[in-house]
Amino acid sequence: MKMIKHCSQAFPTTATGSIVGLDVNGVLEITNTFPFPTPDNATADAHQDSVQNLAANAPRTKANVAYQREMIKYLREVNVDANNVGWYTSTSMGNFINASMIENQFSYQKELNERTVALVHDLSRSVQGSLSLRAFRLSPVFMTAFKENKFTTETLQKSGLRYQDIFIELPVTIHNSHLLTTLLHQMPSAPPKRSLEFPQSLAELNKSNLNPQPPLNPNLDTFDLAIDPFLEKTCDLLLDTIENHHTEQNNHQYYQRQLAREQAKITAWQQKRKTENAARVAAKQTPLPEDEWQKLFKLPQEPSRLEIMLNSSQVEQYARQIDGFTATVSGKMFAVKNNLLPGEN
Q: How far, in Å, CA of 342 to CA of 344, rounded?
């Protein structure tokens, strides 16, 4: 509840915080949370990132790392679970797969414990009536690749790393606290010890507690044929992510064209040098070195494929959301298909 309240109050700014708990037989039990300090926009330098980026990068800043240690020390003094088991962040419309998310989780799994998790709370899904709380952890293969910072085509082919292998999603089970469970068990009254008397008339039946209450008013919103606004927004975000993916693909294709041109120049230079050396050997002269091309030509550096992998993973996330949103809309459209298309039976 603390985490959900913090995320709701900080919206639309990204809310981040630390989670503490225990590791019991391989199961992380989260028992408490506390938020990270909110960055102050007035004190931010003109050359720094925006407040949104500062909030997203808060878990790995030096000030918040020291603040987290201080808070855990205070929690330990009052005999509260003080084992840091990860961090949480808020998101909207499932837009959370980015470089900040990767770097934050990498720092936690590298510095603290490889079993730390990242809890993602989606506010847009929660306002629809279903709590959206997901737990993620970076895969060991991606941790190794990110540590070496090598995301070239050759390294990805050798390691077999795909965009599906970035995160490992863990199941989340929500339990009430022991005090709340005890309160819920004490609320119902004890069953009557004497036999119940049946009513003798209709008037007594109406006054009796056995009379069932009138049903709740029907929710007519379920018959609304309007397209879900969250579905429209998710489609827009999906198109933006596909456009970013296309831009990254164009950058990589430009690198391939540049590399092909440079390699063609190197091949032509090597053929020319071989011809010159053959003529010099025939004239009994010392041949020229054939490795001078390394000083004359500079091959372009391959751009990192990490951004393309993150965009691909985000596209998959949006596609799953659209699949969930269209389930109810498609059912309504099939139900009223004959009314929308009178010419068809």
A: 6
